Amino acid sequence: MGSMTGKTAVVTGGSRGIGRAICLELARRGANVVFSYAGNTAAAEKTLAELKELGVEARAVQGDVADPAAAKALIDTAVKELGGIHILVNNAGITRDNLAMVLKEEDFDAVINTNLKGAFLCMKAAIRPMMKARYGRIVNMSSVVALRGNPGQINYCASKAGLIGMTKSLAKEMGARGITVNAVAPGYIATDMTAALPDAAREAMLSTIPANRPGTPEDVAAAVAFLASEEAGYITGQVLSVDGGMGM
Ligand code: NAP
Question: What pTM was computed for the model?
Answer without folding.
Answer: 0.98
